[in-house]
Amino acid sequence: MTVPHPAPTRPCTREPTPRAGSSRRRGAALLAGAAVLAVAGCTTDNDPPESTTGLPSVFTGSPAPLTTGETPGEPGHSPGGNFVTAGFADPEGDPAGTVTFVERAGFLEIQARVSGLEPGFHGFHVHENGTCEADSTAPDRNETGDFLSAGGHLQLGDRTGVPASGDLTSIHVRDDGRGLLVTSTDAFTLADLNNNGRGRAVVVHAGPDNFGNIPTRYTLPDGAAVPDRQTLTTGDAGPRVACAVVE
């Protein structure tokens, strides 16, 4: 079998120097041709460029991918990695949405979707105990109500002030009864949520959370401290209307 030889590469050539008396038009054409040669260079398909210095950097309009995975889809952190998800239920046991905690580089990303709630802002917290029992008794045995056995807002270590470790951004519910929240926190970890296998409750409240932000210029009867204990421990967010156990 005869193997065909590749076609020879045309050598780089220079345009001939125009003779005296050539027209201006021909001179302009030769100058244009010289410019093209200068841009293209005198290399063949088999010759590497002499230098890559001075070439502009490539700009795509997007930052380089991160390996820490701060947003879904980035390398290092994707669904199937370090995350936990659970479903909300209302006091009647009907589904009321989902909540997902995803481990990122030094913090947790939280995405909550809720449905069937009253329009407006709703307090949203991680609570101490991994229970979601309707019409249950609070751990201090002082009152009974929906999801009260979940205990108070999560506090870790020696923390006692507000916002609590488990306080999260409030969820805004639209007129159609649905809400979406994406937020983050570095106040606890997935291990804190697991709680040695006992889990934690994630609770949505009937009203907004004021995070204890009651100015001291307001007064209470008998000169009691402002804000009072109820505000400091609950944010005055009202009854618990949805609950999920994460572990």
From TrEMBL:
PANTHER family registered for this protein in UniProt: SUPEROXIDE DISMUTASE CU-ZN -RELATED (PTHR10003)
Protein name per UniProt: Superoxide dismutase [Cu-Zn]
Keyword Oxidoreductase: yes
Residue ranges of domain Superoxide dismutase copper/zinc binding in the record: 97-246
Ranges for region Disordered: 1-26, 42-91, 133-154
The protein's Enzyme Commission number: 1.15.1.1
Cofactor(s) required, per the database record: Zn(2+); Cu cation
Cofactor note: Binds 1 zinc ion per subunit. Binds 1 copper ion per subunit.
Keywords for the protein's UniProt record, in alphabetical order: Copper, Metal-binding, Oxidoreductase, Zinc
Function per UniProt: Destroys radicals which are normally produced within the cells and which are toxic to biological systems. May play a role in favoring mycobacterial survival in phagocytes.
Family note: Belongs to the Cu-Zn superoxide dismutase family.
Catalytic activity: 2 superoxide + 2 H(+) = H2O2 + O2
Biased composition (Polar residues): 43-55
Pfam families on file: Sod_Cu (PF00080)
